[in-house]
Amino acid sequence: MANTDVRLQLFSGNNFTNRRIVLRRGGVAVRDLGAFRFDNILSSFRLRNVSTTDSVTLVLFSRINFQGSIRIFRGSQNVSNLGNFNNLTSSLILVGRNLTNSQIQQIQSTGRPPRDILVIRQ
């Protein structure tokens, strides 16, 4: 299963510093990062799919419940600074496959993540 190979490290500081949260599987939707006391403090992250490096999608939302402005990241990558999205993330979706733009738009318009993933609420 692709989601078991996904790794995400979230950092509150630029350049992978300060407070860190680690997710060791994909297929996760966090409706409100306040559940981890991480609302509006995400500044950098490391994203990986250890078996298939290009089969992973991370979607960051500026509001809870997958609403507001979004940033989409596909494929394994390290982002040391979120730039104009720094300290704005309030919810996220992480999956071990590539979500299409239309799938992401549907999530945003309905507030419902894909069916096959774990949803974390506050």
Automatic annotation (TrEMBL):
Organism: Paenibacillus phytorum
InterPro entries, alphabetized: G_crystallin-like (IPR011024)
Superkingdom of the source species: Bacteria
Record-given protein name: Uncharacterized protein
